Amino acid sequence: MPSPFADPVHVLYVDHHAWLQGWLRRKLGDTHQAADLAHDTFERVITGRQASALQEPRAYLTTLAQRVLYNFWRRRELEKAWIDALATLPEGLAPSPEDYCLVREAIEAIDLRLNGMPPKARQAFLLRRVDGMKHAEIAAAMGVSEPTAERYFKQALVHLCSRPLPDEA
């Protein structure tokens, strides 16, 4: 059985985990959240390309960590918007804790599916599916031609169809 110390991911983790966690701690100001995001970053290393082929491991880890950090901030923004929307509801209309969890999971699943979609395709998709706009309205809102708006929407559909559902990953 090969030694775990020969594993390039293990070596990368041992050599750079403390540095990465410190970098994230400085960005976030929160030790526990930095530890979670460092873990998420190394999770991406494990599922990503070969760690043994890295020329600049810290540059690679920084790039991955910035993406993880961006996703964290985006999820936090979504959650804050949801909480702000709930605060405006009368008490009798506010969802139960169970419903809140279900909606939060649904929002996270949608966010996960939209992750990596080109921004204009995402905008066209959301305008169509959330706001119910027609292609001509989307084109006017985005300042593009109608065929371009339709192309963006189709691009979004292709992106969504090519990504596995969270349960399939």
Q: How would you sum up this structure in a few lines?
A:
By secondary structure, the chain is an all-alpha fold. It has helices at about 10-30, 30-45, 55-85, 95-115, 120-130, 135-140, 145-160. Helix 1 packs antiparallel against helix 2, helix 5 crosses helix 6 and helix 6 crosses helix 7 (about 145-160).
H-E string: HHHHHHH
How far from one another are the termini? 29 Å
What value does the Rg take, in angstroms? 20 Å
The CATH architecture of the domain at 116-169: Orthogonal Bundle
Notes on the protein architecture:
The two termini are 29 Å apart. α1 runs antiparallel to α2. The chain has a domain of 54 residues: Arc Repressor Mutant, subunit A. With 169 residues, it is mainly alpha-helical. The radius of gyration is 20 Å and the shape is globular. The model has no long low-confidence stretch (mean pLDDT 84).
Characteristic key phrases:
Arc Repressor Mutant, subunit A; 169 residues; mainly alpha; globular
Task: Give the arrangement of secondary structure elements.
Layout (H helix, E strand, L loop, with lengths): L7 H21 L2 H17 L9 H31 L9 H18 L4 H11 L5 H8 L3 H17 L7
Helix pairs in contact: 1-2, 1-3, 2-3, 3-4, 5-6, 5-7, 6-7
